[in-house]
Amino acid sequence: MIPSRVFSDQRGRLPKREAGKLADRILAGERRKRPINIIFTGDDRITQLNAAYRKQDRPTDVLSFAADADEGILGEVYISIDAARRQAADYGASLREEILRLVCHGTLHLCGYDHHRRPDTARMKARENKYFGAYLEHD
Predict the structure, then answer these.
(1) In sequence order, what E strands does 1-139 have?
(2) Alpha carbons 104 and 127: distance in angstroms, whole number
């Protein structure tokens, strides 16, 4: 599989290499053959995307967009670094950990997991804990 790619319009040191590596492990574990693009952005851009595609004119932490089968990628995951900073402070986590948790969450959405209903939420959270926990333990 071609490795997933990570792009950023944000300043500062961000775990780009780790984000791609984690996403690729999840994709392999979920038997997906196409890579994803991960985009680190800020609240302004993610608010525009959230308003355009989800009709919610406010920032969110992560958005996932599936690609068409002929595009060569499974989809794109947008992560608001601003939201990740706020959440890291709220959860007592490092910025790195929160960004990687969001990478995991967004990648699982592209693999078909969702959290609209309680059983789906539990299933998705279990997968998120599996991949995220294993990554933190071994890297």
Answers:
(1) 5-8, 36-41, 62-66, 75-80
(2) 9
Burial-class residue 33 by CB neighbours within 10 Å (0-12, 13-18, 19+). Answer: exposed
Q: Look up the domain containing 87 and give its range.
A: 5-138
Buried b (16+ CB within 10 A) or exposed e, 80-106: bbbbbeebbeeeeeebbbbbbbbbbbb
AA identity, residue 107: T
State pTM to two decimals: 0.95
- Which residues contact residue 105 at a Cβ distance below 8 angstroms, ignoring those fewer than 6 apart? 62, 128
User: What pLDDT does residue 136 have?
Assistant: 87
Q: State the pLDDT confidence band at 116, using cuts at 50, 70 and 90.
A: confident
CATH code at position 9? 3.40.390.30
**Count of structural domains within the chain:** 1
Stated as kind and residue range, the H or E segment containing 28 is helix 16-29
pLDDT at 69 over 90: no
Amino acid at 26: I
Can you give the pLDDT at residue 32?
96
